[in-house]
TrEMBL record:
Annotated SUPFAM superfamilies: Diaminopimelate epimerase-like
Name of this protein: PhzF family phenazine biosynthesis protein
Organism superkingdom: Bacteria
Species for this entry: Streptomyces fumanus
An example Gene Ontology molecular-function term: catalytic activity
Amino acid sequence: MTDYDVLRVFCAANGGYGNELGVVRDGSVLPDRAERQALAAKLGFSETVFVDDPERGVVDIYTPTLRLPFAGHPCVGTAWLLDVPELVTPAGVVGARQDGEFTWIEARAEWAPPRTLRRYATAAEVDDLPVPPKGEWVYAWAWEDEPAGRVRARGFPGRDDGIDEDEATGAAALLLTAELGRALNITQGTGSQLLTAPQPGGWVEIGGRVVLER
């Protein structure tokens, strides 16, 4: 079996929750894309990262069914694990930094895969949502405290890969931040926390806590 680490990314303040991520630190053991896709499907995480150059931060990201040019929680988790100043993804170079308990990355909204950002009137409505029909990636959100920038969100990938709800989704948070043009403190899923902040020139920072699960 290929060696891999399991992280939880975008954890709550107590270290709980967060979205699981698989990271194969030595991507050379599976150089073929088909083999990587097969392992990502077998592991079943929302994303699995293969590190092709740990010093330069070159990474390759897969869901159980497809390869992604960029994804938020894999980049945050891998930046924390490798402790590098940047990651090189097919979409572009992702800046990274550590700030106390938070790991931050800097990326562009146009790198994120398409998401349907669906606003609801209250956080309670978001809490009560059933899983929507397959076919579109839905990021359901509502203000918990608009002046403070606090958001309640849930992510539904809409794919047939066994993942009905994504616990924490950096790419969707990136898109929402770009659309609203302000810093956000997002509670997603059962209790994950994502922080975001717009930057000059169309960049957005996304930050969160990372825990090594095993």
